[in-house]
Amino acid sequence: MIDLPLSIAKRVHAEGVLAFPNECCGALLGSVDAVGTQELRHVVDILALPNTREAEEQYHRFVITPEDYLRAEQFARTEGLDLVGFYHSHPNAPARPSDYDREHAWPNLSYVIVATLLRDGKAAAGDVTSWELSLDRSRFDAEEQVAL
Amino acid sequence: MATVFIPTALRAFTDRQSQVEITSDTVGEAISALAALYPDLAPHILDDEGALRGFVNVFIGQTNIRETQGLDTPVATTDEVSIVPAIAGGSDLARRV
Lengths: 148, 97
Prior knowledge:
The complex is a heterodimer.
Chain A: E1 2-3, H1 6-19, E2 25-35, E3 38-49, E4 62-64, H2 66-78, E5 82-91, H3 99-103, E6 110-119, E7 122-133, E8 140-142
Parallel strand pairs in A: 1-3, 5-6
Antiparallel strand pairs in A: 2-3, 2-5, 6-7, 7-8
Chain B: E1 2-5, E2 19-22, H1 27-37, H2 42-45, E3 56-60, E4 63-64, E5 80-85, E6 87-89
Parallel strand pairs in B: 1-5
Antiparallel strand pairs in B: 1-2, 3-4, 3-5
């Protein structure tokens, strides 16, 4: 489950629009609560990170370097937060995880995806969804959005 | 003792611990000790031969051990060892629109 406030979703929107027609990517920072056997991830901040995939592939791919991951985790720690997931955009594609997303994902994290598209000649954001990889890595499950 | 930082994605296998104190001389020994302490963690970071998996990186401070001596890299008692998963993804779009 994820608690993704509207203010954070709007910031992910903005990052997606800025990167269009390429994919944006970044870290979700916040905290984790145990709710029964499930985890509830509260997102309170994002940290935009460079998409380091080759420029000609960025329309459908992103890569975060280990150095940038470490920087995000260390930044989260100094803010008293945890790195609870990642976001990225799908330009001209639905806000649903691809097989490539699943093959490269980790369990116990939230993966937020924003669809971006051209609307009236300008880059715009569409749906924002959140997903969690199953422990056996076989599928992504849509995360329940919890409003607190 | 060196401090090993566990990424969020792997804390389900370390009783939710975000950091673990380990005594070891090398990164390899630290990772092996960690895997012995938390057996469910082992297959996520080491392959069948005990080598570091390709989609996992280990840093000492800000230095990736792949750039130094790999698992033979020495660890000092004051070192911070971070396990860092590789992060990538992307859509099904077959060609640029």
